[in-house]
Fold this sequence. Notes:
This protein has 284 residues and is mainly α.
Amino acid sequence: PEAVRGEPLPSRDDLSGLSPALPAGGEKAGRERLSRWLRSGLAAYEDRHDDLGGDGTSRLSPHLHFGTLSPVELVRRAREHGGAGAEAFVRQLCWRDFHHQVLAARPDASVRDYRTRDDHWRGPDEAAGDVAAWREGRTGYPLVDAAMRQLRHEGWMHNRARLLVASFLTKTLYVDWRTGARHFLDLLVDGDVVNNQLNWQWAAGTGTDTRPHRVLNPVVQGKRYDPDGTYVRRWVPELRDVEARFVHEPWRLPEERRAGLAYPHPVVDLAEGLARFKHARGRD
Ligand SMILES: Cc1cc2nc3c(=O)[nH]c(=O)nc-3n(C[C@H](O)[C@H](O)[C@H](O)COP(=O)(O)OP(=O)(O)OC[C@H]3O[C@@H](n4cnc5c(N)ncnc54)[C@H](O)[C@@H]3O)c2cc1C
Protein backbone atom coordinates (compact mmCIF):
# COMPACT_ATOMS: atom_id res chain seq x y z
CA PRO A 1 0.00 0.00 0.00
CA GLU A 2 1.24 3.46 -0.87
CA ALA A 3 0.69 4.81 2.62
CA VAL A 4 3.11 2.34 4.16
CA ARG A 5 6.68 3.61 4.21
CA GLY A 6 9.52 1.14 3.86
CA GLU A 7 12.29 1.06 6.42
CA PRO A 8 15.72 -0.49 5.96
CA LEU A 9 16.04 -3.89 7.59
CA PRO A 10 18.43 -3.89 10.53
CA SER A 11 21.41 -6.18 10.16
CA ARG A 12 22.01 -8.92 12.72
CA ASP A 13 24.79 -6.81 14.24
CA ASP A 14 22.37 -3.94 14.90
CA LEU A 15 20.17 -6.12 17.10
CA SER A 16 21.14 -6.48 20.71
CA GLY A 17 20.37 -9.50 22.86
CA LEU A 18 20.28 -12.06 20.04
CA SER A 19 21.70 -15.44 20.88
CA PRO A 20 24.56 -16.43 18.55
CA ALA A 21 22.85 -19.84 18.45
CA LEU A 22 19.93 -18.50 16.37
CA PRO A 23 19.93 -20.02 12.86
CA ALA A 24 20.65 -17.86 9.82
CA GLY A 25 17.53 -16.58 8.07
CA GLY A 26 16.60 -16.00 4.43
CA GLU A 27 15.77 -18.12 1.40
CA LYS A 28 19.36 -19.03 0.60
CA ALA A 29 20.04 -20.34 4.12
CA GLY A 30 16.68 -22.19 4.04
CA ARG A 31 17.46 -23.95 0.76
CA GLU A 32 20.93 -24.90 1.96
CA ARG A 33 19.51 -26.36 5.14
CA LEU A 34 16.83 -28.23 3.17
CA SER A 35 19.38 -29.75 0.75
CA ARG A 36 21.58 -30.83 3.65
CA TRP A 37 18.58 -32.35 5.41
CA LEU A 38 17.43 -34.27 2.33
CA ARG A 39 20.94 -35.61 1.79
CA SER A 40 21.79 -36.62 5.32
CA GLY A 41 18.73 -36.62 7.64
CA LEU A 42 15.58 -37.61 5.79
CA ALA A 43 16.30 -41.33 5.29
CA ALA A 44 16.57 -41.96 9.04
CA TYR A 45 13.75 -39.57 10.01
CA GLU A 46 11.14 -42.23 10.76
CA ASP A 47 13.42 -44.02 13.24
CA ARG A 48 15.22 -41.02 14.72
CA HIS A 49 12.75 -38.14 14.88
CA ASP A 50 11.94 -38.70 18.55
CA ASP A 51 15.55 -39.16 19.63
CA LEU A 52 16.46 -36.19 21.81
CA GLY A 53 20.21 -36.76 21.99
CA GLY A 54 20.83 -36.75 18.24
CA ASP A 55 19.79 -34.22 15.63
CA GLY A 56 17.07 -36.31 13.99
CA THR A 57 14.67 -33.60 12.76
CA SER A 58 14.97 -31.02 9.99
CA ARG A 59 14.90 -27.82 12.05
CA LEU A 60 13.17 -26.21 9.09
CA SER A 61 10.32 -24.81 11.21
CA PRO A 62 11.70 -21.23 11.36
CA HIS A 63 11.85 -21.16 7.55
CA LEU A 64 8.32 -22.51 7.28
CA HIS A 65 7.17 -19.93 9.78
CA PHE A 66 8.76 -16.96 8.00
CA GLY A 67 7.92 -18.24 4.53
CA THR A 68 11.53 -18.55 3.38
CA LEU A 69 10.65 -22.15 2.42
CA SER A 70 7.27 -23.36 1.25
CA PRO A 71 5.66 -26.56 2.58
CA VAL A 72 4.68 -27.51 -0.98
CA GLU A 73 8.32 -27.43 -2.06
CA LEU A 74 9.28 -29.51 0.98
CA VAL A 75 6.71 -32.19 0.17
CA ARG A 76 7.73 -32.31 -3.48
CA ARG A 77 11.44 -32.55 -2.78
CA ALA A 78 11.01 -35.09 0.05
CA ARG A 79 8.91 -37.32 -2.20
CA GLU A 80 11.53 -37.10 -4.95
CA HIS A 81 13.86 -38.73 -2.43
CA GLY A 82 11.16 -41.24 -1.47
CA GLY A 83 11.19 -43.91 1.23
CA ALA A 84 9.67 -44.29 4.68
CA GLY A 85 11.55 -41.25 6.01
CA ALA A 86 10.00 -39.03 3.34
CA GLU A 87 6.46 -40.20 4.12
CA ALA A 88 6.98 -39.76 7.87
CA PHE A 89 8.25 -36.23 7.21
CA VAL A 90 5.26 -35.38 5.00
CA ARG A 91 2.92 -36.66 7.74
CA GLN A 92 4.55 -34.24 10.17
CA LEU A 93 4.08 -31.37 7.73
CA CYS A 94 0.39 -32.30 7.58
CA TRP A 95 0.06 -31.43 11.27
CA ARG A 96 1.02 -27.91 10.37
CA ASP A 97 -1.79 -27.66 7.82
CA PHE A 98 -4.22 -29.46 10.11
CA HIS A 99 -3.73 -26.83 12.82
CA HIS A 100 -4.17 -24.04 10.27
CA GLN A 101 -7.48 -25.57 9.24
CA VAL A 102 -8.66 -25.99 12.82
CA LEU A 103 -7.85 -22.38 13.66
CA ALA A 104 -9.50 -21.11 10.47
CA ALA A 105 -12.68 -22.90 11.56
CA ARG A 106 -12.36 -21.88 15.21
CA PRO A 107 -10.36 -18.61 15.47
CA ASP A 108 -11.27 -18.33 19.16
CA ALA A 109 -9.07 -21.39 19.85
CA SER A 110 -6.01 -19.12 19.86
CA VAL A 111 -7.17 -17.76 23.22
CA ARG A 112 -9.91 -20.08 24.49
CA ASP A 113 -10.18 -23.83 25.05
CA TYR A 114 -11.04 -25.67 21.86
CA ARG A 115 -12.85 -28.25 24.03
CA THR A 116 -13.20 -27.07 27.57
CA ARG A 117 -12.51 -29.47 30.43
CA ASP A 118 -13.81 -26.93 32.96
CA ASP A 119 -10.36 -26.44 34.40
CA HIS A 120 -9.80 -24.09 37.32
CA TRP A 121 -6.08 -23.63 36.81
CA ARG A 122 -3.93 -22.57 39.71
CA GLY A 123 -3.77 -18.77 39.87
CA PRO A 124 -0.70 -16.61 39.22
CA ASP A 125 0.02 -16.08 42.93
CA GLU A 126 -0.31 -19.70 43.96
CA ALA A 127 1.76 -20.98 41.03
CA ALA A 128 4.27 -18.09 40.68
CA GLY A 129 7.26 -20.00 42.08
CA ASP A 130 6.56 -23.10 39.99
CA VAL A 131 6.09 -21.08 36.81
CA ALA A 132 9.37 -19.22 37.39
CA ALA A 133 11.19 -22.53 37.97
CA TRP A 134 9.66 -23.93 34.77
CA ARG A 135 10.62 -20.88 32.69
CA GLU A 136 14.16 -20.82 34.01
CA GLY A 137 14.80 -24.55 33.73
CA ARG A 138 15.22 -25.30 37.43
CA THR A 139 12.26 -27.58 38.20
CA GLY A 140 14.58 -30.34 39.42
CA TYR A 141 13.40 -32.63 36.58
CA PRO A 142 16.43 -32.88 34.28
CA LEU A 143 14.63 -33.40 30.98
CA VAL A 144 12.23 -30.51 31.59
CA ASP A 145 15.11 -28.25 32.63
CA ALA A 146 17.27 -29.22 29.66
CA ALA A 147 14.45 -28.40 27.26
CA MET A 148 13.60 -25.06 28.87
CA ARG A 149 17.25 -24.04 28.82
CA GLN A 150 17.56 -25.07 25.17
CA LEU A 151 14.57 -22.85 24.38
CA ARG A 152 16.16 -19.87 26.11
CA HIS A 153 19.51 -20.42 24.44
CA GLU A 154 18.53 -21.47 20.90
CA GLY A 155 14.98 -20.17 20.50
CA TRP A 156 14.03 -23.71 19.51
CA MET A 157 13.11 -26.98 21.17
CA HIS A 158 12.61 -30.53 19.94
CA ASN A 159 8.94 -31.55 19.45
CA ARG A 160 9.16 -34.40 21.98
CA ALA A 161 10.57 -31.96 24.54
CA ARG A 162 7.85 -29.38 23.74
CA LEU A 163 5.21 -32.02 24.43
CA LEU A 164 6.85 -32.95 27.71
CA VAL A 165 7.33 -29.42 29.11
CA ALA A 166 3.79 -28.48 28.07
CA SER A 167 2.33 -31.56 29.78
CA PHE A 168 4.47 -30.81 32.84
CA LEU A 169 3.26 -27.21 33.11
CA THR A 170 -0.42 -27.82 32.41
CA LYS A 171 -0.92 -31.18 34.07
CA THR A 172 1.79 -31.87 36.64
CA LEU A 173 1.90 -28.22 37.81
CA TYR A 174 -1.72 -27.56 36.77
CA VAL A 175 -1.06 -24.12 35.27
CA ASP A 176 -3.12 -22.55 32.46
CA TRP A 177 -1.82 -23.48 28.98
CA ARG A 178 -1.92 -19.80 27.96
CA THR A 179 0.87 -19.03 30.45
CA GLY A 180 3.15 -21.54 28.73
CA ALA A 181 2.05 -20.59 25.22
CA ARG A 182 2.93 -16.96 25.90
CA HIS A 183 6.42 -17.87 27.10
CA PHE A 184 6.97 -20.04 24.02
CA LEU A 185 5.84 -17.25 21.69
CA ASP A 186 8.25 -14.87 23.39
CA LEU A 187 11.25 -17.13 22.77
CA LEU A 188 10.59 -19.52 19.87
CA VAL A 189 12.17 -18.56 16.58
CA ASP A 190 9.44 -20.60 14.83
CA GLY A 191 6.74 -19.36 17.22
CA ASP A 192 3.41 -18.84 15.52
CA VAL A 193 -0.07 -18.49 16.92
CA VAL A 194 -1.51 -21.41 14.96
CA ASN A 195 0.98 -24.16 15.73
CA ASN A 196 1.88 -22.90 19.14
CA GLN A 197 -1.58 -22.38 20.61
CA LEU A 198 -3.06 -25.56 19.12
CA ASN A 199 -0.13 -27.73 20.16
CA TRP A 200 -0.36 -26.27 23.64
CA GLN A 201 -4.05 -27.15 23.70
CA TRP A 202 -3.21 -30.63 22.46
CA ALA A 203 -0.78 -31.09 25.35
CA ALA A 204 -3.17 -29.57 27.89
CA GLY A 205 -5.98 -31.86 26.80
CA THR A 206 -8.23 -28.96 25.80
CA GLY A 207 -7.55 -29.37 22.07
CA THR A 208 -7.84 -32.14 19.51
CA ASP A 209 -5.89 -34.84 21.39
CA THR A 210 -7.92 -38.04 21.62
CA ARG A 211 -6.30 -38.82 25.01
CA PRO A 212 -6.84 -35.50 26.78
CA HIS A 213 -6.03 -36.72 30.30
CA ARG A 214 -2.72 -38.40 29.44
CA VAL A 215 0.17 -37.08 31.58
CA LEU A 216 3.77 -37.46 30.38
CA ASN A 217 6.24 -38.54 33.06
CA PRO A 218 9.62 -36.73 32.69
CA VAL A 219 11.60 -39.69 34.07
CA VAL A 220 9.95 -42.25 31.78
CA GLN A 221 10.28 -39.90 28.79
CA GLY A 222 13.93 -39.29 29.63
CA LYS A 223 14.77 -42.99 29.80
CA ARG A 224 12.95 -43.62 26.53
CA TYR A 225 14.11 -40.69 24.38
CA ASP A 226 17.42 -39.74 26.00
CA PRO A 227 18.55 -43.10 27.42
CA ASP A 228 22.22 -42.22 27.88
CA GLY A 229 21.50 -38.65 29.07
CA THR A 230 23.28 -36.90 26.17
CA TYR A 231 20.58 -34.25 25.84
CA VAL A 232 20.35 -33.57 29.57
CA ARG A 233 24.11 -33.27 29.99
CA ARG A 234 24.32 -30.86 27.02
CA TRP A 235 21.94 -28.36 28.64
CA VAL A 236 22.24 -29.03 32.36
CA PRO A 237 25.95 -28.83 33.11
CA GLU A 238 25.31 -29.47 36.82
CA LEU A 239 24.61 -33.09 35.80
CA ARG A 240 27.52 -33.48 33.40
CA ASP A 241 29.31 -36.09 35.51
CA VAL A 242 26.24 -38.05 36.58
CA GLU A 243 25.98 -41.61 35.23
CA ALA A 244 23.19 -42.53 32.85
CA ARG A 245 21.27 -44.56 35.44
CA PHE A 246 20.88 -41.48 37.69
CA VAL A 247 20.85 -38.66 35.15
CA HIS A 248 17.04 -38.51 34.89
CA GLU A 249 16.56 -39.07 38.63
CA PRO A 250 19.41 -37.28 40.43
CA TRP A 251 17.48 -37.45 43.70
CA ARG A 252 18.32 -41.18 43.76
CA LEU A 253 22.05 -40.46 44.07
CA PRO A 254 23.66 -41.09 47.45
CA GLU A 255 22.96 -38.01 49.59
CA GLU A 256 26.55 -36.73 49.78
CA ARG A 257 26.85 -36.72 45.96
CA ARG A 258 23.42 -35.21 45.50
CA ALA A 259 24.14 -32.42 47.94
CA GLY A 260 27.29 -31.47 46.02
CA LEU A 261 25.49 -31.05 42.69
CA ALA A 262 24.07 -27.49 42.95
CA TYR A 263 20.99 -28.80 41.17
CA PRO A 264 17.52 -28.10 42.64
CA HIS A 265 15.21 -30.59 44.34
CA PRO A 266 12.04 -31.35 42.35
CA VAL A 267 9.46 -28.54 42.63
CA VAL A 268 6.68 -31.09 42.88
CA ASP A 269 6.32 -34.76 43.67
CA LEU A 270 5.14 -36.46 40.45
CA ALA A 271 2.54 -38.58 42.26
CA GLU A 272 1.13 -35.51 44.03
CA GLY A 273 1.01 -33.55 40.79
CA LEU A 274 -0.81 -36.42 39.11
CA ALA A 275 -3.30 -36.74 41.96
CA ARG A 276 -4.04 -32.99 41.88
CA PHE A 277 -4.61 -33.12 38.12
CA LYS A 278 -6.86 -36.17 38.27
CA HIS A 279 -8.87 -34.61 41.05
CA ALA A 280 -9.23 -31.35 39.09
CA ARG A 281 -10.49 -33.26 36.05
CA GLY A 282 -12.84 -35.36 38.18
CA ARG A 283 -11.02 -38.59 37.40
CA ASP A 284 -10.00 -39.80 40.84
C1 LIG B 1 3.69 -27.13 23.00
C2 LIG B 1 4.12 -27.07 21.54
C3 LIG B 1 4.29 -25.84 20.93
C4 LIG B 1 4.67 -25.79 19.56
N1 LIG B 1 4.82 -24.54 18.98
C5 LIG B 1 5.14 -24.49 17.65
C6 LIG B 1 5.27 -23.22 17.01
O1 LIG B 1 5.08 -22.16 17.61
N2 LIG B 1 5.61 -23.21 15.69
C7 LIG B 1 5.82 -24.37 14.98
O2 LIG B 1 6.14 -24.30 13.79
N3 LIG B 1 5.67 -25.57 15.57
C8 LIG B 1 5.35 -25.67 16.88
N4 LIG B 1 5.22 -26.90 17.47
C9 LIG B 1 5.30 -28.12 16.63
C10 LIG B 1 6.67 -28.80 16.54
O3 LIG B 1 7.21 -28.99 17.81
C11 LIG B 1 7.67 -28.01 15.69
O4 LIG B 1 7.09 -27.68 14.45
C12 LIG B 1 8.91 -28.85 15.43
O5 LIG B 1 9.53 -29.23 16.64
C13 LIG B 1 9.89 -28.06 14.58
O6 LIG B 1 11.10 -28.75 14.45
P1 LIG B 1 11.54 -29.34 13.05
O7 LIG B 1 11.41 -28.32 11.98
O8 LIG B 1 12.88 -29.95 13.25
O9 LIG B 1 10.44 -30.49 12.83
P2 LIG B 1 10.41 -31.76 11.87
O10 LIG B 1 10.24 -32.97 12.73
O11 LIG B 1 11.55 -31.75 10.92
O12 LIG B 1 9.04 -31.60 11.07
C14 LIG B 1 8.96 -30.89 9.82
C15 LIG B 1 7.92 -29.80 9.92
O13 LIG B 1 6.63 -30.35 10.18
C16 LIG B 1 5.88 -29.42 10.96
N5 LIG B 1 5.48 -30.04 12.24
C17 LIG B 1 6.09 -31.06 12.87
N6 LIG B 1 5.41 -31.38 14.01
C18 LIG B 1 4.38 -30.52 14.09
C19 LIG B 1 3.32 -30.34 15.01
N7 LIG B 1 3.17 -31.11 16.11
N8 LIG B 1 2.43 -29.35 14.77
C20 LIG B 1 2.55 -28.56 13.68
N9 LIG B 1 3.51 -28.70 12.76
C21 LIG B 1 4.42 -29.66 12.97
C22 LIG B 1 6.77 -28.22 11.23
O14 LIG B 1 6.47 -27.22 10.27
C23 LIG B 1 8.17 -28.80 11.05
O15 LIG B 1 9.13 -27.84 10.68
C24 LIG B 1 4.86 -26.99 18.83
C25 LIG B 1 4.69 -28.21 19.48
C26 LIG B 1 4.32 -28.26 20.82
C27 LIG B 1 4.11 -29.61 21.45
